[in-house]
Design a protein that fits this description.
The structure is a homodimer. In chain A, 66% of the residues lie in helices and 4% in strands. In chain A, strands 1-3-2 form a 3-stranded antiparallel beta sheet. By secondary structure, chain A is mainly alpha-helical. The relative contact order of chain A is 0.11. Chain A contains 9 helices and 3 strands. At the A-B interface, helix 3, helix 4 and helix 7 of A face helix 3, helix 4 and helix 7 of B. The first copy, chain A, binds a DNA duplex through helix 3.
Chain lengths: 242, 242
DNA sequence: GTCAAGAAAATTATCGATATTTTTTATAAC
DNA sequence: GTTATAAAAAATATCGATAATTTTCTTGAC
Protein backbone atom coordinates (compact mmCIF):
# COMPACT_ATOMS: atom_id res chain seq x y z
CA UNK A 1 0.00 0.00 0.00
CA UNK A 2 1.11 3.54 -0.73
CA UNK A 3 2.61 5.47 2.16
CA UNK A 4 0.39 8.47 2.84
CA UNK A 5 1.92 11.94 2.60
CA UNK A 6 2.75 13.61 5.89
CA UNK A 7 0.42 16.55 6.19
CA UNK A 8 2.68 17.91 8.87
CA UNK A 9 5.90 16.07 8.41
CA UNK A 10 7.64 18.29 10.94
CA UNK A 11 5.40 16.97 13.67
CA UNK A 12 6.23 13.35 12.92
CA UNK A 13 9.29 11.61 14.27
CA UNK A 14 11.21 11.85 11.02
CA UNK A 15 14.82 12.58 11.89
CA UNK A 16 15.26 14.65 8.76
CA UNK A 17 12.59 17.11 9.71
CA UNK A 18 14.03 18.00 13.10
CA UNK A 19 13.37 21.61 13.89
CA UNK A 20 11.14 22.20 10.88
CA UNK A 21 8.00 24.02 11.94
CA UNK A 22 6.32 23.84 8.57
CA UNK A 23 6.25 21.42 5.68
CA UNK A 24 7.82 24.18 3.63
CA UNK A 25 10.86 24.29 5.94
CA UNK A 26 11.03 20.53 5.91
CA UNK A 27 11.17 20.46 2.12
CA UNK A 28 13.72 23.27 2.18
CA UNK A 29 16.00 21.38 4.56
CA UNK A 30 15.79 18.15 2.61
CA UNK A 31 16.40 19.84 -0.73
CA UNK A 32 19.26 21.82 0.75
CA UNK A 33 20.89 18.70 2.06
CA UNK A 34 20.46 16.86 -1.22
CA UNK A 35 21.98 19.73 -3.17
CA UNK A 36 24.96 20.18 -0.86
CA UNK A 37 25.62 16.45 -0.71
CA UNK A 38 25.44 16.19 -4.49
CA UNK A 39 22.43 13.85 -4.64
CA UNK A 40 20.92 16.54 -6.82
CA UNK A 41 23.74 17.22 -9.26
CA UNK A 42 25.00 20.74 -10.02
CA UNK A 43 23.24 22.17 -13.05
CA UNK A 44 20.47 19.57 -13.09
CA UNK A 45 16.87 20.56 -13.70
CA UNK A 46 14.52 20.60 -10.71
CA UNK A 47 11.17 19.49 -12.08
CA UNK A 48 8.29 20.34 -9.81
CA UNK A 49 6.15 17.27 -10.48
CA UNK A 50 9.05 14.88 -9.99
CA UNK A 51 10.25 16.49 -6.76
CA UNK A 52 6.65 16.66 -5.54
CA UNK A 53 6.55 12.89 -5.61
CA UNK A 54 9.99 12.51 -4.03
CA UNK A 55 9.47 14.85 -1.11
CA UNK A 56 5.73 14.28 -0.74
CA UNK A 57 4.60 17.91 -0.75
CA UNK A 58 2.26 20.02 -2.85
CA UNK A 59 3.54 22.07 -5.76
CA UNK A 60 3.10 25.45 -4.08
CA UNK A 61 4.93 24.31 -0.98
CA UNK A 62 7.71 22.92 -3.10
CA UNK A 63 8.00 26.12 -5.11
CA UNK A 64 8.24 28.07 -1.89
CA UNK A 65 11.04 25.81 -0.67
CA UNK A 66 12.90 26.23 -3.96
CA UNK A 67 12.44 29.99 -3.76
CA UNK A 68 13.96 29.86 -0.29
CA UNK A 69 17.00 28.11 -1.74
CA UNK A 70 17.40 30.99 -4.16
CA UNK A 71 18.51 33.08 -1.18
CA UNK A 72 21.35 30.65 -0.52
CA UNK A 73 22.24 30.69 -4.22
CA UNK A 74 22.05 26.90 -4.18
CA UNK A 75 19.28 27.08 -6.77
CA UNK A 76 18.79 29.33 -9.77
CA UNK A 77 15.50 30.16 -11.46
CA UNK A 78 14.24 31.66 -14.67
CA UNK A 79 10.71 32.90 -15.18
CA UNK A 80 8.49 30.40 -17.05
CA UNK A 81 11.47 28.07 -17.38
CA UNK A 82 11.70 26.72 -13.85
CA UNK A 83 14.43 25.87 -11.37
CA UNK A 84 17.91 24.33 -11.58
CA UNK A 85 20.54 23.30 -9.09
CA UNK A 86 23.14 26.07 -9.17
CA UNK A 87 26.12 24.98 -11.26
CA UNK A 88 29.62 24.77 -9.81
CA UNK A 89 32.97 25.73 -11.29
CA UNK A 90 36.57 26.27 -10.29
CA UNK A 91 36.23 30.00 -10.97
CA UNK A 92 33.26 30.17 -8.66
CA UNK A 93 35.08 28.24 -5.95
CA UNK A 94 37.96 30.69 -6.15
CA UNK A 95 35.58 33.60 -5.80
CA UNK A 96 33.79 31.91 -2.90
CA UNK A 97 37.06 31.12 -1.17
CA UNK A 98 38.35 34.65 -1.43
CA UNK A 99 35.13 36.17 -0.11
CA UNK A 100 34.76 33.54 2.53
CA UNK A 101 38.19 34.24 3.97
CA UNK A 102 37.28 37.88 4.16
CA UNK A 103 33.96 37.30 5.91
CA UNK A 104 35.30 34.60 8.21
CA UNK A 105 38.24 36.64 9.46
CA UNK A 106 36.10 39.75 9.80
CA UNK A 107 33.65 37.81 11.96
CA UNK A 108 36.39 36.11 13.94
CA UNK A 109 38.24 39.33 14.68
CA UNK A 110 35.13 40.99 16.02
CA UNK A 111 34.16 37.89 17.93
CA UNK A 112 37.57 37.77 19.63
CA UNK A 113 37.11 41.41 20.58
CA UNK A 114 33.63 40.97 22.03
CA UNK A 115 33.54 37.39 23.30
CA UNK A 116 32.78 36.62 26.93
CA UNK A 117 33.15 33.51 29.10
CA UNK A 118 30.08 31.84 27.63
CA UNK A 119 31.45 32.33 24.15
CA UNK A 120 34.71 30.65 25.15
CA UNK A 121 32.82 27.74 26.68
CA UNK A 122 30.80 27.36 23.48
CA UNK A 123 33.96 27.02 21.40
CA UNK A 124 35.52 24.43 23.68
CA UNK A 125 32.30 22.42 23.74
CA UNK A 126 31.89 22.51 19.95
CA UNK A 127 35.52 21.50 19.48
CA UNK A 128 35.01 18.58 21.82
CA UNK A 129 31.91 17.39 19.98
CA UNK A 130 33.76 17.68 16.68
CA UNK A 131 36.75 15.73 18.02
CA UNK A 132 34.51 12.90 19.14
CA UNK A 133 33.03 12.41 15.69
CA UNK A 134 36.47 12.69 14.09
CA UNK A 135 37.57 9.65 16.08
CA UNK A 136 34.95 7.65 14.24
CA UNK A 137 35.56 9.28 10.84
CA UNK A 138 38.43 6.99 9.87
CA UNK A 139 36.59 3.78 10.68
CA UNK A 140 33.09 4.49 9.37
CA UNK A 141 33.59 7.44 7.02
CA UNK A 142 30.33 7.29 5.11
CA UNK A 143 28.13 6.86 8.18
CA UNK A 144 29.44 9.86 10.11
CA UNK A 145 30.19 12.21 7.22
CA UNK A 146 26.96 14.13 7.80
CA UNK A 147 27.62 14.33 11.51
CA UNK A 148 31.11 15.63 10.85
CA UNK A 149 29.76 18.35 8.55
CA UNK A 150 27.23 19.46 11.18
CA UNK A 151 29.79 19.58 13.96
CA UNK A 152 32.40 21.25 11.82
CA UNK A 153 29.89 23.96 11.00
CA UNK A 154 28.91 24.28 14.65
CA UNK A 155 32.56 24.65 15.68
CA UNK A 156 33.20 27.47 13.25
CA UNK A 157 29.93 29.12 14.20
CA UNK A 158 30.82 28.95 17.88
CA UNK A 159 34.08 30.74 17.16
CA UNK A 160 32.34 33.70 15.52
CA UNK A 161 29.26 33.70 17.75
CA UNK A 162 30.31 36.92 19.48
CA UNK A 163 30.49 38.90 16.24
CA UNK A 164 27.84 41.60 16.44
CA UNK A 165 27.66 42.36 12.74
CA UNK A 166 24.68 40.42 11.52
CA UNK A 167 25.59 41.10 7.88
CA UNK A 168 29.08 39.71 8.30
CA UNK A 169 27.59 36.62 9.88
CA UNK A 170 24.89 36.38 7.20
CA UNK A 171 27.30 36.54 4.28
CA UNK A 172 29.74 34.24 6.00
CA UNK A 173 26.99 31.64 6.47
CA UNK A 174 25.96 31.78 2.80
CA UNK A 175 29.55 31.34 1.66
CA UNK A 176 30.11 28.54 4.14
CA UNK A 177 27.23 26.51 2.72
CA UNK A 178 28.48 27.24 -0.79
CA UNK A 179 31.92 25.86 -0.09
CA UNK A 180 30.38 22.92 1.72
CA UNK A 181 29.21 21.69 -1.68
CA UNK A 182 32.72 21.78 -3.03
CA UNK A 183 34.17 20.20 0.07
CA UNK A 184 31.89 17.19 -0.39
CA UNK A 185 33.47 16.52 -3.73
CA UNK A 186 36.97 16.60 -2.33
CA UNK A 187 36.24 14.95 1.02
CA UNK A 188 37.79 11.58 0.25
CA UNK A 189 40.88 13.04 -1.38
CA UNK A 190 41.33 15.48 1.49
CA UNK A 191 41.09 12.83 4.14
CA UNK A 192 44.50 11.87 5.43
CA UNK A 193 46.37 14.40 3.36
CA UNK A 194 45.50 17.17 5.80
CA UNK A 195 45.34 17.12 9.54
CA UNK A 196 42.08 19.00 9.85
CA UNK A 197 41.87 18.26 13.54
CA UNK A 198 45.20 19.94 14.19
CA UNK A 199 44.10 22.96 12.14
CA UNK A 200 40.96 23.30 14.21
CA UNK A 201 42.85 22.96 17.45
CA UNK A 202 45.33 25.64 16.42
CA UNK A 203 42.48 27.98 15.47
CA UNK A 204 40.78 27.37 18.78
CA UNK A 205 43.92 27.97 20.81
CA UNK A 206 44.74 31.21 19.03
CA UNK A 207 41.14 32.34 19.40
CA UNK A 208 40.95 31.61 23.12
CA UNK A 209 44.33 33.33 23.56
CA UNK A 210 42.68 36.34 21.89
CA UNK A 211 45.42 36.38 19.30
CA UNK A 212 43.31 37.74 16.44
CA UNK A 213 46.11 38.02 13.89
CA UNK A 214 47.20 34.42 14.34
CA UNK A 215 43.64 33.07 14.51
CA UNK A 216 42.77 34.86 11.27
CA UNK A 217 45.88 33.67 9.49
CA UNK A 218 45.17 30.09 10.52
CA UNK A 219 41.55 30.45 9.42
CA UNK A 220 42.62 31.75 6.03
CA UNK A 221 44.98 28.81 5.59
CA UNK A 222 42.22 26.47 6.70
CA UNK A 223 39.84 27.86 4.09
CA UNK A 224 42.51 27.93 1.38
CA UNK A 225 43.07 24.23 1.89
CA UNK A 226 39.56 23.50 0.67
CA UNK A 227 40.35 25.25 -2.57
CA UNK A 228 43.74 23.60 -2.84
CA UNK A 229 42.53 20.05 -2.28
CA UNK A 230 39.67 20.57 -4.67
CA UNK A 231 41.84 21.97 -7.43
CA UNK A 232 44.48 19.35 -6.75
CA UNK A 233 41.85 16.70 -7.31
CA UNK A 234 41.01 18.18 -10.67
CA UNK A 235 44.70 18.69 -11.48
CA UNK A 236 44.23 22.33 -12.28
CA UNK A 237 46.90 24.85 -11.25
CA UNK A 238 45.59 27.65 -9.07
CA UNK A 239 46.98 30.77 -7.47
CA UNK A 240 45.70 31.62 -4.01
CA UNK A 241 45.16 35.33 -3.68
CA UNK A 242 46.13 36.98 -0.43
CA UNK B 1 -17.49 47.59 -11.93
CA UNK B 2 -14.60 45.75 -10.35
CA UNK B 3 -11.35 45.73 -12.29
CA UNK B 4 -10.54 42.13 -13.16
CA UNK B 5 -7.28 40.67 -11.87
CA UNK B 6 -4.49 40.49 -14.44
CA UNK B 7 -3.84 36.82 -15.03
CA UNK B 8 -0.54 37.78 -16.55
CA UNK B 9 0.13 41.23 -15.29
CA UNK B 10 3.56 41.20 -16.80
CA UNK B 11 2.07 41.00 -20.26
CA UNK B 12 -0.11 44.07 -19.77
CA UNK B 13 1.13 47.59 -20.32
CA UNK B 14 1.40 48.33 -16.61
CA UNK B 15 4.51 50.42 -16.07
CA UNK B 16 5.19 48.78 -12.73
CA UNK B 17 5.44 45.34 -14.23
CA UNK B 18 8.09 46.22 -16.78
CA UNK B 19 10.39 43.29 -17.26
CA UNK B 20 8.37 40.95 -15.07
CA UNK B 21 7.95 37.63 -16.82
CA UNK B 22 5.66 36.11 -14.26
CA UNK B 23 2.96 37.35 -11.92
CA UNK B 24 5.22 36.24 -9.10
CA UNK B 25 7.98 38.60 -10.24
CA UNK B 26 5.45 41.35 -10.70
CA UNK B 27 4.26 40.98 -7.12
CA UNK B 28 7.87 40.80 -5.95
CA UNK B 29 8.77 44.04 -7.70
CA UNK B 30 5.75 45.89 -6.40
CA UNK B 31 6.22 44.68 -2.84
CA UNK B 32 9.92 45.51 -3.02
CA UNK B 33 9.21 49.00 -4.16
CA UNK B 34 6.57 49.56 -1.49
CA UNK B 35 8.91 48.33 1.24
CA UNK B 36 11.88 50.41 0.12
CA UNK B 37 9.74 53.51 -0.33
CA UNK B 38 8.20 53.05 3.10
CA UNK B 39 4.60 52.57 1.92
CA UNK B 40 4.82 49.32 3.85
CA UNK B 41 6.28 50.48 7.16
CA UNK B 42 9.29 48.76 8.76
CA UNK B 43 8.18 46.11 11.23
CA UNK B 44 4.59 45.98 9.99
CA UNK B 45 2.78 42.69 9.52
CA UNK B 46 2.31 41.43 5.98
CA UNK B 47 -1.04 39.67 6.00
CA UNK B 48 -1.55 37.37 3.05
CA UNK B 49 -5.27 37.97 2.56
CA UNK B 50 -4.92 41.73 2.71
CA UNK B 51 -1.97 41.88 0.30
CA UNK B 52 -3.76 39.44 -1.98
CA UNK B 53 -6.50 42.00 -2.49
CA UNK B 54 -4.03 44.88 -2.89
CA UNK B 55 -1.78 43.27 -5.45
CA UNK B 56 -4.43 41.11 -7.09
CA UNK B 57 -2.63 37.78 -6.95
CA UNK B 58 -3.34 34.37 -5.45
CA UNK B 59 -2.04 33.41 -2.04
CA UNK B 60 0.57 30.95 -3.27
CA UNK B 61 1.96 33.46 -5.73
CA UNK B 62 2.06 36.10 -3.03
CA UNK B 63 3.84 33.78 -0.61
CA UNK B 64 6.41 33.04 -3.27
CA UNK B 65 7.01 36.74 -3.81
CA UNK B 66 7.41 37.28 -0.07
CA UNK B 67 9.82 34.36 0.12
CA UNK B 68 11.82 36.00 -2.65
CA UNK B 69 12.05 39.15 -0.55
CA UNK B 70 13.53 37.08 2.24
CA UNK B 71 16.68 36.80 0.12
CA UNK B 72 16.99 40.59 0.07
CA UNK B 73 16.38 40.66 3.83
CA UNK B 74 13.64 43.18 3.21
CA UNK B 75 11.15 40.77 4.76
CA UNK B 76 11.42 38.44 7.71
CA UNK B 77 9.36 35.31 8.32
CA UNK B 78 8.56 32.93 11.13
CA UNK B 79 6.99 29.52 10.62
CA UNK B 80 3.23 29.48 11.34
CA UNK B 81 3.42 33.15 12.28
CA UNK B 82 3.76 34.74 8.87
CA UNK B 83 5.70 37.60 7.30
CA UNK B 84 6.79 41.07 8.41
CA UNK B 85 8.54 43.99 6.80
CA UNK B 86 12.12 43.85 8.12
CA UNK B 87 12.56 46.42 10.90
CA UNK B 88 15.12 49.20 10.64
CA UNK B 89 17.44 50.64 13.26
CA UNK B 90 20.45 52.91 13.60
CA UNK B 91 22.59 49.95 14.64
CA UNK B 92 21.58 48.08 11.51
CA UNK B 93 22.29 51.09 9.33
CA UNK B 94 25.77 51.34 10.80
CA UNK B 95 26.38 47.68 10.10
CA UNK B 96 25.03 48.02 6.56
CA UNK B 97 27.14 51.10 5.91
CA UNK B 98 30.34 49.48 7.09
CA UNK B 99 29.79 46.36 5.00
CA UNK B 100 28.58 48.32 2.04
CA UNK B 101 31.74 50.40 1.95
CA UNK B 102 33.76 47.23 1.97
CA UNK B 103 31.82 45.57 -0.86
CA UNK B 104 31.55 48.74 -2.93
CA UNK B 105 35.27 49.53 -2.82
CA UNK B 106 36.18 45.90 -3.40
CA UNK B 107 33.99 45.86 -6.51
CA UNK B 108 35.22 49.25 -7.69
CA UNK B 109 38.89 48.37 -7.30
CA UNK B 110 38.49 45.22 -9.35
CA UNK B 111 36.35 47.01 -11.90
CA UNK B 112 39.02 49.70 -12.37
CA UNK B 113 41.58 46.95 -12.86
CA UNK B 114 39.54 45.04 -15.45
CA UNK B 115 37.42 47.69 -17.18
CA UNK B 116 37.60 48.19 -20.95
CA UNK B 117 36.38 50.95 -23.29
CA UNK B 118 32.77 49.78 -23.18
CA UNK B 119 32.84 49.89 -19.40
CA UNK B 120 34.07 53.49 -19.49
CA UNK B 121 31.34 54.43 -21.97
CA UNK B 122 28.74 52.85 -19.71
CA UNK B 123 29.82 54.98 -16.78
CA UNK B 124 29.78 58.21 -18.76
CA UNK B 125 26.33 57.39 -20.17
CA UNK B 126 24.88 56.50 -16.75
CA UNK B 127 26.33 59.68 -15.26
CA UNK B 128 24.75 61.71 -18.02
CA UNK B 129 21.33 60.13 -17.49
CA UNK B 130 21.64 60.76 -13.76
CA UNK B 131 22.63 64.39 -14.30
CA UNK B 132 19.60 64.99 -16.49
CA UNK B 133 17.18 63.82 -13.84
CA UNK B 134 19.04 65.80 -11.16
CA UNK B 135 18.28 69.00 -13.08
CA UNK B 136 14.62 68.32 -12.51
CA UNK B 137 15.02 67.13 -8.92
CA UNK B 138 14.96 70.61 -7.39
CA UNK B 139 11.81 71.69 -9.21
CA UNK B 140 9.65 68.57 -9.02
CA UNK B 141 11.23 66.52 -6.25
CA UNK B 142 8.41 64.08 -5.55
CA UNK B 143 7.72 63.26 -9.21
CA UNK B 144 11.27 62.36 -10.16
CA UNK B 145 12.44 60.82 -6.88
CA UNK B 146 11.88 57.31 -8.21
CA UNK B 147 13.67 58.14 -11.43
CA UNK B 148 16.57 59.54 -9.49
CA UNK B 149 16.84 56.38 -7.38
CA UNK B 150 16.87 54.23 -10.53
CA UNK B 151 19.51 56.29 -12.27
CA UNK B 152 21.62 56.64 -9.15
CA UNK B 153 21.64 52.86 -8.84
CA UNK B 154 22.45 52.47 -12.52
CA UNK B 155 25.37 54.88 -12.22
CA UNK B 156 26.93 53.02 -9.33
CA UNK B 157 26.31 49.70 -11.07
CA UNK B 158 27.99 50.96 -14.23
CA UNK B 159 31.07 51.87 -12.23
CA UNK B 160 31.48 48.34 -10.85
CA UNK B 161 30.26 46.52 -13.96
CA UNK B 162 33.74 45.22 -14.76
CA UNK B 163 34.14 43.50 -11.39
CA UNK B 164 34.39 39.77 -12.08
CA UNK B 165 33.58 38.60 -8.57
CA UNK B 166 29.89 37.73 -8.69
CA UNK B 167 29.77 37.37 -4.91
CA UNK B 168 31.15 40.83 -4.34
CA UNK B 169 28.58 42.19 -6.74
CA UNK B 170 25.81 40.11 -5.19
CA UNK B 171 26.47 41.25 -1.63
CA UNK B 172 27.00 44.81 -2.76
CA UNK B 173 23.61 44.80 -4.47
CA UNK B 174 21.83 43.47 -1.38
CA UNK B 175 23.43 46.11 0.82
CA UNK B 176 22.66 48.82 -1.70
CA UNK B 177 18.94 48.06 -1.62
CA UNK B 178 19.09 47.91 2.16
CA UNK B 179 20.55 51.38 2.46
CA UNK B 180 18.11 52.63 -0.14
CA UNK B 181 15.39 52.21 2.47
CA UNK B 182 17.25 54.41 4.90
CA UNK B 183 18.10 56.96 2.27
CA UNK B 184 14.41 57.43 1.50
CA UNK B 185 13.86 58.53 5.06
CA UNK B 186 16.63 61.08 4.92
CA UNK B 187 16.14 62.24 1.34
CA UNK B 188 14.55 65.61 2.10
CA UNK B 189 16.99 66.47 4.85
CA UNK B 190 19.92 65.47 2.67
CA UNK B 191 18.81 67.56 -0.27
CA UNK B 192 20.74 70.82 -0.47
CA UNK B 193 23.01 69.99 2.43
CA UNK B 194 25.18 67.77 0.22
CA UNK B 195 26.24 68.24 -3.34
CA UNK B 196 25.59 64.67 -4.42
CA UNK B 197 26.15 65.56 -8.05
CA UNK B 198 29.66 66.78 -7.33
CA UNK B 199 30.38 63.62 -5.34
CA UNK B 200 29.29 61.46 -8.28
CA UNK B 201 31.35 63.48 -10.72
CA UNK B 202 34.45 63.17 -8.55
CA UNK B 203 33.95 59.40 -8.26
CA UNK B 204 33.53 59.12 -12.01
CA UNK B 205 36.63 61.18 -12.78
CA UNK B 206 38.82 59.22 -10.37
CA UNK B 207 37.44 55.96 -11.76
CA UNK B 208 38.05 56.87 -15.41
CA UNK B 209 41.54 58.07 -14.45
CA UNK B 210 42.03 54.56 -13.00
CA UNK B 211 42.95 56.09 -9.66
CA UNK B 212 41.59 53.27 -7.51
CA UNK B 213 42.71 54.66 -4.15
CA UNK B 214 41.04 58.01 -4.73
CA UNK B 215 37.91 56.51 -6.26
CA UNK B 216 37.51 54.20 -3.28
CA UNK B 217 38.08 56.95 -0.75
CA UNK B 218 35.47 59.12 -2.45
CA UNK B 219 33.06 56.19 -2.58
CA UNK B 220 33.51 55.54 1.13
CA UNK B 221 32.83 59.18 1.91
CA UNK B 222 29.82 59.07 -0.38
CA UNK B 223 28.39 56.08 1.47
CA UNK B 224 29.25 57.51 4.87
CA UNK B 225 27.21 60.59 4.07
CA UNK B 226 24.04 58.51 3.94
CA UNK B 227 24.71 57.35 7.48
CA UNK B 228 25.64 60.84 8.63
CA UNK B 229 22.60 62.59 7.20
CA UNK B 230 20.33 59.88 8.54
CA UNK B 231 21.78 60.03 12.04
CA UNK B 232 21.88 63.80 11.93
CA UNK B 233 18.17 63.77 11.20
CA UNK B 234 17.55 61.65 14.25
CA UNK B 235 20.03 63.74 16.31
CA UNK B 236 21.99 60.69 17.40
CA UNK B 237 25.76 60.93 17.69
CA UNK B 238 27.60 58.35 15.62
CA UNK B 239 31.16 57.34 15.01
CA UNK B 240 32.10 56.40 11.48
CA UNK B 241 34.40 53.41 11.53
CA UNK B 242 37.27 53.35 9.07
C1' DG C 1 -8.89 43.64 38.69
C1' DT C 2 -6.23 39.48 37.23
C1' DC C 3 -5.50 35.18 35.67
C1' DA C 4 -6.96 30.78 33.35
C1' DA C 5 -9.49 28.03 30.30
C1' DG C 6 -12.28 27.43 26.52
C1' DA C 7 -14.70 29.11 22.34
C1' DA C 8 -14.66 31.89 18.30
C1' DA C 9 -12.33 34.41 14.85
C1' DA C 10 -8.56 35.40 12.09
C1' DT C 11 -4.55 33.96 9.80
C1' DT C 12 -1.20 30.89 7.95
C1' DA C 13 0.03 26.74 5.45
C1' DT C 14 -1.08 23.26 2.21
C1' DC C 15 -3.04 21.00 -1.64
C1' DG C 16 -4.49 19.59 -6.18
C1' DA C 17 -6.98 21.39 -10.17
C1' DT C 18 -6.61 24.45 -14.10
C1' DA C 19 -4.58 27.93 -17.20
C1' DT C 20 -0.52 29.25 -19.58
C1' DT C 21 3.86 28.65 -21.53
C1' DT C 22 7.68 26.03 -23.16
C1' DT C 23 9.53 22.02 -25.22
C1' DT C 24 9.28 18.16 -28.09
C1' DT C 25 7.57 15.64 -31.92
C1' DA C 26 5.59 15.21 -36.39
C1' DT C 27 4.81 16.92 -40.94
C1' DA C 28 5.76 19.35 -45.03
C1' DA C 29 8.23 22.37 -48.11
C1' DC C 30 12.52 23.42 -50.25
C1' DG D 1 19.34 16.86 -45.27
C1' DT D 2 17.71 21.27 -43.47
C1' DT D 3 14.55 24.52 -42.16
C1' DA D 4 9.89 26.02 -41.04
C1' DT D 5 5.40 25.26 -39.28
C1' DA D 6 1.86 23.01 -36.70
C1' DA D 7 0.21 19.77 -33.38
C1' DA D 8 0.98 17.25 -29.21
C1' DA D 9 3.10 16.63 -24.91
C1' DA D 10 5.29 18.18 -20.89
C1' DA D 11 6.27 21.49 -17.63
C1' DT D 12 5.56 25.84 -15.20
C1' DA D 13 2.65 29.24 -12.98
C1' DT D 14 -1.53 30.46 -10.78
C1' DC D 15 -5.63 30.11 -8.19
C1' DG D 16 -9.05 29.45 -4.60
C1' DA D 17 -10.66 25.91 -1.42
C1' DT D 18 -9.58 23.51 2.83
C1' DA D 19 -6.84 22.09 6.88
C1' DA D 20 -4.08 23.49 10.71
C1' DT D 21 -2.45 26.90 13.74
C1' DT D 22 -2.27 31.17 16.14
C1' DT D 23 -4.58 35.04 18.03
C1' DT D 24 -8.39 37.30 20.04
C1' DC D 25 -12.47 37.33 22.65
C1' DT D 26 -15.52 35.57 26.29
C1' DT D 27 -16.58 33.63 30.46
C1' DG D 28 -15.81 32.42 35.11
C1' DA D 29 -13.18 31.69 39.30
C1' DC D 30 -10.45 33.86 42.83
Amino acid sequence: MEESAPRMAAASGDALSEGAKTLNEYAYQRLRKDIISGVLAPGSKLRIEHLRATYQVGSSTLREALTLLLADALVIAEGQRGFWVAPISIDDLQDITRMRKMMATLALRESIKNGDDEWEAGIVAAFHRLSRVEDRLAAEAAEVADDWEDRNREFHEAAIAACTSRWTRHFRAILYSQSERYRRFSLVAMNGRRDVHAEHQAIMEATLARNADLACRLTEDHIDNTLLSMTHMLEIPVTVAR
